[in-house]
Amino acid sequence: MIPHAELPAALHSALAECQRHQQLLQSAWQEANLLPALQGTTLEAFAPEELRILDQLAFRFGKLQDSLGRRVLPTLMQILLEWSEQESFLDILQRAEKRRIIPSVSAWLALRQLRNQLAHEYPDHPERVLSNLRALVEQTPLLLTIHHHLRSWIIDHLGDSLPNHPALEPHA
User: Fold this and answer.
1) 29 Cβ neighbours under 8 A, 6+ residues apart
2) SS (H, E, C) 109-146
3) Which is nearest to 59 in space by CA: 148, 125, 146, 136?
């Protein structure tokens, strides 16, 4: 648990980290959308540069979701005095959904499942890898939307009570 006096700085730091991941994720996603190999039926269709783009996309997808889930949401719930070390992350998600901080627990969990599938390589199942990569490209906008929604909620509800910081600028 973060000491109460340190919560604003911790939230700022977490939001800045998320913003860096979001920018790189957005860039990789834009590049990945242009990959003709995603329409192919085998992993062999990908050139090394295309695989690099997809690796970056998967890495930043995981990092953004991890940062939101492990840093931003728990810190935010501490600020709102709605967090206990004994409760599960699912409890935090449900409370965040109830307050409309995140759009949906089920969407968050589906993205988490995809992130976990991407973290495991399946060399004996290239069709599963290709399916996961397609799902990654398809689902990245949802994660970006959740990040944007969460930042907007913080700005709208806590912006006046937190010191100015670039991570809290509306269009940062």
Assistant:
1) 57, 137, 140, 141, 144
2) HHHHHHHHHHHCCCCCCHHHHHHHHHHHHHHHHHHHHH
3) 136
Residue 65's closest CA among 28, 109, 33? 109
Token pair in block for residue 90: 């699912």
Domain 4-168 has CATH 3.90.25: no
Q: Give CA–CA dist 14/68, Å, rounded.
A: 8
Spell 95-130 as b/e; 16+ CB within 10 A means b.
bbbeeebbeebebbeebbebbebbeeeeeeeeeebb
Residue type, 77: M
Per-residue pLDDT of the chain (172 residues; tens, 9 = 90+): 677 778 888 998 999 999 999 999 999 999 999 998 888 878 888 899 999 999 999 999 999 999 999 999 999 999 988 877 888 999 999 999 999 999 999 999 999 999 999 988 777 788 888 999 999 999 999 999 999 999 999 988 887 666 555 555 555 4
